[in-house]
Amino acid sequence: MIELDFEKTGGLLPAIAQDWESGEVLMLAYMNAKAWQKTLETGMATYYSRSRKTLWVKGLTSGNTQKVKEIRVDCDKDTILLKVEQVGNAACHTGHRSCFHLRVAGETLAVEGEPLFDPKEVYRS
Q: Which of 68, 74, 89, 123 has the most CB atoms less than 10 A away?
């Protein structure tokens, strides 16, 4: 079993999702030990939702899943890098390809690109 240092950071490790072909950074989320184990077992990116306090499989609601192609861990074993195939094209809950679609432009944030889906339609409650 692969041992990561979940204790150092209070049980949650940052997990960066990167497009396995282009290298584009898609998102940053967090994993606890259960999310880590589920990701290893299923090959699907599974994270821990800090707001809902539960595991979530990326894309289960939206269809924009992440198939894990490769996993890297930093030298301190407290940060995870997932190289993923982004199925459905959009990684961000706002509908954008990447969660990093806001660019600092002077003293404001500029939106780069257009949403690929309408979040109001996808995440109806």
A: 68
